[in-house]
């Protein structure tokens, strides 16, 4: 694919600006070999102030700590604990592996933010590849988790997940993910380039060619619209099924002149429909909040007014997109009662003290997982 192989304005103009000898344009200290990988859009902006780089480094440091603890514990506990090695939990483990790929490269981003430097072409490719695996893989895995929970709750007998079915779905996830990670890496279609502060990298949504526009449009549909549609559909069906089931139970109890048909109902516990609704809303909100701003930036860059995309404006959505990789394990695993039970056994110093579920609650716990 033919990208801009050179910077259109002369390199000396990337040096000190006329009105302020201390001010530079972005990319002023890069070699010509590095400049060919930087979209020209960024080279027209003044160099970002050090304060903003330090803020980004601090934010990434917090995300790294949260992400390494959360995803690390999920992978460790799920790998060692036999009770957690269920077909459904293979999706949670796959999600943690996707998120872990992003968390592992955060130290590089922290260092580059502190040093205010472009990481170099090789590190840029590695970082962007890990980001693609994390983002696209997590979106597809979230859709698979939504399908699994829908099958378990709406079709408790014929919809039960098996190891074979789970493994086939995971293979399908990676077949779905691979082209959109590999094509920009090989530059057969699109490419990985620096973005925002030139310390992080992503796919190119700024080069004004028909191929770039087509790639961004296809990527938006394949990796955002389709997974989000599955997530919303399956969780809305779960909420609808649970509400209808609870309504039927209440109507039957009313006909029998009893308060409730549930023998193990806890007066202090939330109703089933409220718990499921909250989980569904949380999962949908995380996906939308993390990826909608970034998707909007990419669409504006490819099809809209690029003057709206300043370095700071584009870096904020990039940070939001990385937060989901750090908080996913807390939503899917740490809220899991069996996971907390295993965690309390293996790391009693955390003071979790999760109690084993009583026999009467086993079915409810299994369904909610």
From TrEMBL:
TM stretches of this protein: 51-78, 90-111, 126-145, 166-185, 214-235, 279-303, 309-331
GO biological process entries: phototransduction; visual perception
Membrane topology summary: Multi-pass membrane protein
Keyword Disulfide bond (UniProt): yes
Cross-referenced InterPro entries: GPCR_opsins, GPCR_Rhodpsn, GPCR_Rhodpsn_7TM, Opsin, Retinal_BS
Record's keyword terms, sorted: Chromophore, Disulfide bond, G-protein coupled receptor, Glycoprotein, Membrane, Photoreceptor protein, Receptor, Retinal protein, Sensory transduction, Transducer, Transmembrane, Transmembrane helix, Vision
Domain of life (superkingdom): Eukaryota
SUPFAM superfamilies per the UniProt record, alphabetical: Family A G protein-coupled receptor-like (SSF81321)
Cellular compartments annotated: Membrane
Pfam families: 7tm_1
GO cellular component: membrane
Domain G-protein coupled receptors family 1 profile: 70-332
Single Gene Ontology MF annotation: photoreceptor activity
Family: Belongs to the G-protein coupled receptor 1 family. Opsin subfamily.
The name this protein goes by in its record: Visual pigments (Opsins) retinal binding site,Opsin,GPCR, rhodopsin-like, 7TM,Opsin RH3/RH4,G
Organism from which the protein derives: Cinara cedri
């Amino acid at each position: 694919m033919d990208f801009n192989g050179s910077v259109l304005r002369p390199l000396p103009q990337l040096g000190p600006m006329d009105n302020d000898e201390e001010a530079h344009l972005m990319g002023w200290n890069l070699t010509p070999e590095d400049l060919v990988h930087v979209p020209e859009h960024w080279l027209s902006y003044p160099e970002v102030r050090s304060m903003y780089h330090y803020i980004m480094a601090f934010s990434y440091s917090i995300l790294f700590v949260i992400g390494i603890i959360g995803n690390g514990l999920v992978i460790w506990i799920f790998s060692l604990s036999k009770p957690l090695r269920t077909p459904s939990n293979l999706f949670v483990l796959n999600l943690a592996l996707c998120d872990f790929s992003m968390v592992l490269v955060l130290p590089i981003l922290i260092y580059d933010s502190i040093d205010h430097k472009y990481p170099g072409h090789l590190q840029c490719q590695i970082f962007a590849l890990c980001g693609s695996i994390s983002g696209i893989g997590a979106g597809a895995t979230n859709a698979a988790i939504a399908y699994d929970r829908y099958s378990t709750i709406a079709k408790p007998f014929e919809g039960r997940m098996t190891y074979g079915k789970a493994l086939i779905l995971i293979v399908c996830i990676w077949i779905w993910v691979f082209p959109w990670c590999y094509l920009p890496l090989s530059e057969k279609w699109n490419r990985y380039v620096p973005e925002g502060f030139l310390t992080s990298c992503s796919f190119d949504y700024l080069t004004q060619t028909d191929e770039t526009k087509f790639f961004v449009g296809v990527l938006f549909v394949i990796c955002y619209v389709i997974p989000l549609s599955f997530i919303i559909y399956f969780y809305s069906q779960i909420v609808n099924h649970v509400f209808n089931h609870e309504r039927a139970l209440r109507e039957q109890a009313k006909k029998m002149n009893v308060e409730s048909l549930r023998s193990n109902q806890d007066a202090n516990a939330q109703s089933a429909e409220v718990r499921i609704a909250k989980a569904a809303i949380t999962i949908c909100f995380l996906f939308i909040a993390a990826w909608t701003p970034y998707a909007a930036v990419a669409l504006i860059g490819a099809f809209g007014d690029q003057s709206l995309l300043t370095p700071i404006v584009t870096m904020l959505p990039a940070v939001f997109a990385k937060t989901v990789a750090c908080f996913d394990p807390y939503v899917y695993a740490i809220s899991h009662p069996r996971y907390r039970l295993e965690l309390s056994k293996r790391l009693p110093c955390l003071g979790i003290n999760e109690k084993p579920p009583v026999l009467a609650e086993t079915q409810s716990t299994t369904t909610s997982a």
